What we know:
By secondary structure, this protein is α/β, with parallel strands linked by helices. The protein has 16 helices and 27 strands. Helix 1 packs antiparallel against helix 2, helix 2 crosses helix 3 and helix 7 crosses helix 8.
Amino acid sequence: MTTQQPTGAAGLRIEDPLACRARQVPDKRAAVELTTRRTVTYAQLDALAARAGGLIQSMISTADAQPRIAVIGRNSLLQLAISFGCQRIGAVFTPLNWRLGAAELCAIVEDCAPALVLYADEFASAAASFAASPDRHVMPLEGANGFETRLASTHPVPHVAYPGETPAIMLYTSGTTGAPKGVVITAANALCASLNFAAVGDVGGDSVALCDLPFFHTIGLCAISRTTIALGGTLVISDRFLPERTLTCLGDETLGVSHYFAVPQMAAALRKDPSYDAAKLARLKAIFIGGAPLSKQLIDLFLQDGVALVNGYGMSEAGTAIHMPLDKQAVAAHPGAVGYPAPLIEIRLVGPDGADAPAGEAGEIWLRGPSVTPGYWNKPQETEKAFVDGWYRTGDLGQRTESGAIYVPDRLKDMYISGGENVYPAEVEAVLAAHPKVGDVAVIGVADPKWGETGVAYVVSRDATLTADELSAYCAEKLAAFKRPSQLRFIEAIPRTASGKAQKHVLKQTRGTEA
C-alpha cells in the first residue's frame, strides 16, 4: 500500500488502551450490552479480547503479516472484544456494512481478501457467498460451534505494545468512482482519533456513552466506542436505533448516560417520538451530531429543552477533525457550523489557486496529523491522488468566519449524505447505466426533510417501454436502500460539457423550475 502522509508518530509503540485500563481499573464497569443487559468489567473485557485474539490466531495462516478479519453483524459486546483481539495479534479488524446488498458485500470481501469472515446468524445468507475461497475461513459468531462458544476453551494471547504504524482497522467507504475503498486506520490513527474526540467531547473516566451507531462507521467504532474505552469510561452497546428504547435508555438512572452521538435524522426522530421527554436528556453533556447537514430549526428545538446539539465534522480517513464546543451559547450563535479544529489535527482551507482561503471564502478542507490515514488498501493511485505534500484532501468545502468557526457549505465531490450514509452518484449511475433500456443517466442529491438528502436520477431512455417502476425494482436488486434514488425523472438528454462531464448544476437549476 502506498502511503503519502507522515503519521507524526514514527517509531512510537502503542500501548493497548484496553489492556492499560484493565491494569488501572480492573473492576470498573467497562461495557453494557443493551439487548442482554450483560455487563463486563475492564478485566473481563480484556480477558475476552485476549481469548478472541487467541482464537483468531489459531484459525488463520501466519503467512500474511496483516491479515484482514471481516465481521458482519450488529453491534455487540463480542464484536467489540474481537476488534481489540485483532489488534493484539497484528490483524486488521474489518467490519462490514450489513446495510449493503450481497453483491456489494461480495465486492468488498474480494477486495480485502480476509483470512477469516465472522458472521451473525441474521446475515448467514450473505456470508454464504463469501465461502468460495479455499484460503478463507467463514464462521458463525453464535451457535454450538460458533466463535463465542469456542472462546471459553481458547488460550488467550499476551498483550504486547506494537508499532504505531501497524494497521489495526479497515473501514470501507465508497469512492467517487463508485468502487469501495478500504480506509486503513493504524494503531496510532485510532488512538489519536480517540484523543481528539475525548478533547472536544469532554470524555473521561466518569463518562457513559450510548452507541446506537453501527461499528462499521467511524462514529460508532472510533469516536464513541474506542474513545470511551481508551478514556476509561463505560460503553453502552446498542444493536440498533429504536427511538423509544433510546429515550428509555437515556433516562435510565442506573446507566447514567452522559454522551450520545447521532446523525440529524436520529435526533429528529427522538424529538418526534411520543415518549419524548426533555427530562430524560438531563444527564447528557450534549447530543453530538455528525454525518449530515444540521438545520437551525432542529438546533433551536433542542435548545428550548436545554440540550445542545453539538455539531462536528469527521470521516473514516481522519476521525474527528472539527467540532463545536460544548456550550449552548456557542451552538446558538453559530447554527450549522461544524466548529473548530480538534487538538491533534491541522486544518487548511485551500482555494483554487492553492493558497489558503481568507475568512468568508470557501476552500477545500485539507487535513494533516497523526489521526489521518496513511492511505487506502490496495489502491496506490487513489492514495496518491488524495494527498498533497502530506495533506489529505477531503473533497469538501469549508468556510471560516472571522471568529474561526468553520462551516461546510458544499462539497467539491458530488457525494451526498442520506440518513447519515455517504452516497456517491457515480456508483448509482453505473448501476442504472447497466440497465439495457437506459441510454444515459445522471444522479444528483437534493434536500429531503426525512433523510437530510436523497437522490434524484435523470434518465434518458433508449426504449419507450421503460418505466419508473421497472427501474425502481432494478435498483432494489442492485443497491442498498439508502443508495436508491427516491425520484426517477425521464428527460430527452443529459446536459454535458464538451469533455463529456454531466452538468449537474444545470439539472439542479432545471429541477428548481419543475412543477
